[in-house]
Structure formats: structure tokens, C-alpha cells
Automatic annotation (TrEMBL):
<dbReference type="GO" id="GO:0043041">
    <property type="term" value="P:amino acid activation for nonribosomal peptide biosynthetic process"/>
</dbReference>
<dbReference type="Pfam" id="PF00501">
    <property type="entry name" value="AMP-binding"/>
</dbReference>
<feature type="region of interest" description="Disordered">
    <location>
        <begin position="140"/>
        <end position="166"/>
    </location>
</feature>
<dbReference type="InterPro" id="IPR025110">
    <property type="entry name" value="AMP-bd_C"/>
</dbReference>
<feature type="domain" description="AMP-dependent synthetase/ligase">
    <location>
        <begin position="42"/>
        <end position="389"/>
    </location>
</feature>
<dbReference type="Pfam" id="PF13193">
    <property type="entry name" value="AMP-binding_C"/>
</dbReference>
<feature type="compositionally biased region" description="Pro residues">
    <location>
        <begin position="140"/>
        <end position="149"/>
    </location>
</feature>
<dbReference type="InterPro" id="IPR045851">
    <property type="entry name" value="AMP-bd_C_sf"/>
</dbReference>
<dbReference type="GO" id="GO:0005829">
    <property type="term" value="C:cytosol"/>
</dbReference>
<dbReference type="GO" id="GO:0044550">
    <property type="term" value="P:secondary metabolite biosynthetic process"/>
</dbReference>
<dbReference type="InterPro" id="IPR010071">
    <property type="entry name" value="AA_adenyl_dom"/>
</dbReference>
<dbReference type="InterPro" id="IPR000873">
    <property type="entry name" value="AMP-dep_synth/lig_dom"/>
</dbReference>
<feature type="domain" description="AMP-binding enzyme C-terminal">
    <location>
        <begin position="448"/>
        <end position="520"/>
    </location>
</feature>
<dbReference type="InterPro" id="IPR020845">
    <property type="entry name" value="AMP-binding_CS"/>
</dbReference>
<protein>
    <submittedName>
        <fullName>Amino acid adenylation domain-containing protein</fullName>
    </submittedName>
</protein>
<dbReference type="GO" id="GO:0031177">
    <property type="term" value="F:phosphopantetheine binding"/>
</dbReference>
<dbReference type="InterPro" id="IPR042099">
    <property type="entry name" value="ANL_N_sf"/>
</dbReference>
Length: 539
């Protein structure tokens, strides 16, 4: 892949910038072996230990290693080599995990291809990414690229090979993320970023051989990477949650329980489903094996966090913050009951080898934010991606030379576009600038409105959008709930919590909020502009 250019950050003369969060250096994490190397070590020490549970398919570490070698032989036969992009199209599955490991073992970069992408987006991906080939799993429709099918279960294997130590800056995967242009951008993450995040999750969540980590995310979403790999570093197991079970509360509870899941990462909308299932059916929604629940992708409200801690005594609830451009999470915070009494939850402290900076743009130049002063959040260190594949101008606008830390593992900074504040030795994310709107001359933070709606008993999630034209701009709240929670009741509860100007004019109850392929609320699909949604009540 090409080297991508970095931007230069204009700073105020004489400005001294210190990280508001600076984790300890851990060079060992950055120079460790690959994931497949670790899988092979475990396969030799405990070959019959379970590595992946995918419905009725149970794959041991020995079987996983052998499957990887079969896939590697096929990919190598198609000319795949270090530096290539190799696509994988298919649902989350044991085969998908084996495919990633096979690609990693060849020194190539993994490119998940969502079979649900529109034809135009698939064509754009093929043109800009130019993968060597795409491995198509199951019945997924083939993209307009050279296609490879998985080998038979008893196909020949490549011979055992010495462990390959990849360079720290070798591209390891490319994840496409949406942007303001509507055209997805391919984020290139290097080997060091992958390993730093995986081992950080192992240490911070205290993963071990007895853990079962839920694989709930769509393969095209960055959190799928750690969900399908971190447990394999320590001899644990990955539990694949079927596509249909991950988007319905009751089915999600059943799947997590059936799989004996101990660690799960979900967006707050899905966490709200679990809370509602516990309220409706406390006897069957206990999830006794679940010891750690990680919230990601959206703002976790203090009200929902309090419900989780109250309903599931002893559970570790973690609030995560990150971005695809930073190899996923950059901070973690273990939520306490005391945290839930505040207006917002902290996003925590940086992961090892990661640094956070708060900067304020003033007269065309940047300066460090004062304590308690909101600023834009920038990330430096090991997790920062190489840039956007094939997009030098976009890369230059989001990734910058790290002039703050001469010892940075990557030498890069990423501008998140989020605002945050550093107060009482904690970092709080304030949301994005584009979530601040003006209605009737009043500046409104949409996240605050959503948090108030989500705090109403019986509400499992909320999306507030701006509708109308100049002169009649108003808020419309869509919330997920049972029919027993009508819009009139929710609006009445919110009117007791928010100023009149912040209360949405229109309210729509949905059986569940629509999610996009990343597992986040689909704001485009939730409103009437993009088509009707069944099972709704509106006032």
C-alpha cells in the first residue's frame, strides 16, 4: 500500500501542549507476535481447548489452526502476498475468523466486505481498494472482483511454517467507515495498532482461558476485530452470535445465555434491550455467566448505566470511547454507582501506548485547552491508523504529524471531531459539533435530549432528529418501547426534566430502533424522509 501524507498542525507560537491522558509505555505489546502465532502455541499446548462456538459448530484450537492452513494454501495459490489487500465477504462465523488469521499469516491486510452494501458501493470498493481477491463465504453475493471460495473441510493444508514476525507498520486490516460525503473511507490500521488494542483489552478486561467473548458486531464494523480475536490470545473462546439474534432483545438474551458468554460489547441501544428484557422477564434474563459488559459506539447515559448496575449485581460495566481511525477503543472507564449521579459519564483513561490531547482552535491556530475548558479531542500513539486507503487529501485533513511526542509509536495524531473536557482528572466526551443545533434561536445538544428520553422507564433507546424547513424547524423523537409505553407518557416525563425549548414537538414509538451495519442507531432510516417504519405510534 502507498504511504499516505500527513497534515501539519498550525500551533500558537510558544504553545506547550501536554497530554490530558498519557498511558504508560509498553513496548512489549507493540513487538509481540501475531494472533495466528498465539493460536498455534495454544493448539500445541492444549489442542482440544474450544476456540470458537458457531451455533452447532464447535472448533478447537487444533481445528482452527488446521482450517487456517487450508485457507492459507488457497489464498497463496491466488498470489496473495505481504502488502496485498484480501477481501472477505460473509456473515460473522468461525470461517470468517479463520480467514482473518490466514490473511494475517500471509502478511496481507484483511478487508471485510459487507454483502449488504449497495452495488454501487461494492463497485466503488473494488475500484479504490483493488483487493487481490475476495474470499466469499456461504451464500454471500460475489462482489465485482476476483472471487475465491473456501476449500473443503478435508482439503490439503499448507505445511507448518516458522512464525512470521510482521513489521509494526505493516497494514493489517482496512475497515470502511462512513463520512460526511456519504462515500465510505477505508481506514488502514497497522500491525502495531491491532496488537496494542487486542492486548489492552485482554489486560483491561482481565480476559483468561475461562472467558467466552461474544462476537456480535457486523464484520464491517471495527469492534468485530477484537471480538473475534482477543480471546484467542489467552486460550478463551469466541461465541458467534447469529445475525438475527443480535438485533432483537429477547433473542439476544437467549443467545448470550446459551453461549455462556462472560464478556460482551454492545451499543447502548442493545444494552437498553437487555435492561428492558430484565424488567419484563427478570427470571429468564439474568445472564448469570455475564461478568463484563462494555458499552461502545454511542453515548451511554447515566440512567441506563444505573439500571444495569442495579439489575446485574457485581457486573463490570465499562464505558468505552474510540474510533475506527484509532484501531477502535482508545479509553475505557469502569462505571460505578457514584458516576451515575452525574449528568454524563467519564470516558476513562487511555489504553497503553495511547495519548489524548485537548486543543482549541483560535484565530486559525491551535492551543492547549485550559483545565475545565472544552476542546477538540485528538489522539496520538500506537492506535492511530495510517490514514484512508487511496485518499491522500482526506488523510491529510484528519491525520497529522505528532509534534507533541517525539517518542510516539506512530508519529501520528488523529483529529476525532469530538469535543471533550478535562475535569477533576477525568475526560468527559461532550459529543460532536454537528450534534448541536439551534431551534427557535435556542442552542440544543441533541445528546442531552436523547439522554432524557432514554431515562424514562420502559424506553429502550432514542433517536432525536431535526425536521422542518427555515421558519419551522423542530425536533422529532423516535424511541423504542412496548405499546404499553405510549408517546404521551414519554413526552410528559421528559417535560418534567427538560426546558420547554428542548422538548421535541413530535414523538414516534417504534418496536425497536433501526440500526445500521455498524450496530449504531440509523438516523437516516429512523425518520419519515427515508420511508415509513411499521409498528409506529406518533403524536
Amino acid at each position: 500500500m502507498e504511504n499516505l501524507p500527513l497534515g501539519r498542525l498550525p500551533m500558537w507560537p510558544g504553545t506547550t501542549t501536554k497530554a490530558v491522558g498519557q498511558a504508560l509505555r509498553n513496548p512489549k505489546v507493540l513487538s509481540g507476535g501475531g494472533v495466528f502465532e498465539r493460536v498455534n502455541e495454544i493448539a500445541e499446548a492444549d489442542p482440544d481447548a474450544v476456540a470458537v462456538v458457531d451455533g452447532a459448530r464447535v472448533m478447537t484450537y487444533r481445528q482452527l489452526s488446521e482450517r487456517v492452513r487450508r485457507l492459507r494454501l488457497v489464498l497463496r495459490g491466488r498470489g496473495c502476498r505481504p502488502g496485498d489487500l484480501v477481501g472477505v465477504a460473509g456473515p460473522r462465523s468461525a470461517e470468517l475468523i479463520a480467514a482473518f488469521l490466514a490473511i494475517e499469516s500471509l502478511g496481507a491486510a484483511y478487508l471485510p466486505v459487507d454483502p449488504g452494501w449497495p452495488a454501487g458501493q461494492l463497485a466503488d470498493m473494488a475500484r479504490t481498494a483493488r483487493p487481490r481477491c475476495v474470499l466469499v463465504i456461504g451464500d454471500s453475493p460475489p462482489p465485482p472482483t476476483p472471487v475465491v471460495r473456501p476449500p473443503a473441510a478435508d482439503a490439503p493444508m499448507s505445511p507448518a511454517e516458522p512464525a512470521r514476525r510482521a513489521p509494526a507498520d505493516e497494514p493489517r486490516y482496512v475497515i470502511h467507515t462512513s463520512g460526511s460525503t456519504g462515500r465510505p473511507k477505508g481506514v488502514v490500521v497497522a500491525q502495531s495498532g491491532l496488537l496494542n488494542h487486542l492486548w489492552s483489552m485482554v489486560h483491561e478486561l482481565e480476559l483468561g482461558p475461562s472467558d467466552s467473548v461474544a462476537f456480535t458486531a457486523a464484520p464491517s464494523y471495527v469492534i468485530s476485530i477484537w471480538q473475534m480475536l482477543a480471546a484467542l490470545l489467552v486460550g478463551g473462546r469466541v461465541v458467534v452470535i447469529p445475525e438475527g439474534d443480535a438485533v432483537f432483545g429477547r433473542r439476544l438474551v437467549t443467545a448470550l445465555s446459551r453461549g455462556g458468554v462472560t464478556v460482551a460489547e454492545l451499543v447502548p441501544t442493545a444494552i437498553g434491550w437487555l435492561a428492558e428484557e430484565h424488567r419484563r422477564r427478570p427470571e429468564t434474563a439474568q445472564l448469570p455467566s455475564l461478568r463484563c459488559l462494555v458499552s461502545t459506539g454511542e453515548k451511554l447515559s447515566p440512567g441506563l448505566a444505573a439500571r444495569v448496575l442495579r439489575d446485574r449485581r457485581g457486573i463490570r460495566l465499562v464505558n468505552a470511547y474510540g474510533a475506527t481511525e484509532c484501531a477502535d477503543d482508545v479509553t475505557l472507564h469502569r462505571v460505578t454507582p457514584a458516576d451515575c449521579a452525574a449528568e454524563r459519564l467519564p470516558i476513562g483513561v487511555p489504553l497503553p501506548n495511547v495519548a489524548l490531547y485537548l486543543l482549541v482552535l483560535e484565530d486559525g491556530a491551535w492551543r492547549a485547552a485550559e483545565p475545565g475548558e472544552p476542546g477538540e479531542l485528538w489522539v496520538g500513539g500506537a492506535g492511530v491508523a495510517c490514514g484512508y486507503h487511496g485518499e491522500p487529501e482526506l488523510t491529510r485533513g484528519a491525520f497529522f504529524v505528532d509534534e507533541f511526542d517525539p517518542d510516539s509509536p506512530t508519529g501520528r495524531l488523529y483529529r476525532t471531531g469530538d469535543f471533550a473536557v478535562f475535569s477533576e482528572n477525568r475526560v468527559y466526551c461532550l459529543g460532536r459539533a454537528d450534534r448541536q443545533v439551534k431551534v427557535a434561536g435556542v442552542r440544543i445538544e441533541l445528546d442531552e435530549v436523547e439522554a432524557a428520553v432514554a431515562a424514562v422507564p420502559g424506553v429502550a433507546g432514542c433517536a432525536v432528529v431535526v425536521q422542518g424547513e427555515d421558519g419551522d424547524v423542530h425536533l422529532h423523537a423516535y424511541y423504542g418501547a412496548e405499546p404499553s409505553v405510549p408517546p404521551e407518557r414519554v413526552r410528559g416525563a421528559v417535560e418534567l426534566r427538560l426546558p420547554k425549548a428542548m422538548v421535541p414537538r413530535h414523538w414516534t414509538r417504534l418496536d425497536s430502533l433501526p440500526l445500521n451495519s455498524s450496530g449504531k442507531v440509523d438516523y437516516r432510516g429512523v425518520g419519515g424522509r427515508t420511508g415509513a417504519i411499521d409498528q409506529r405510534e406518533t403524536v
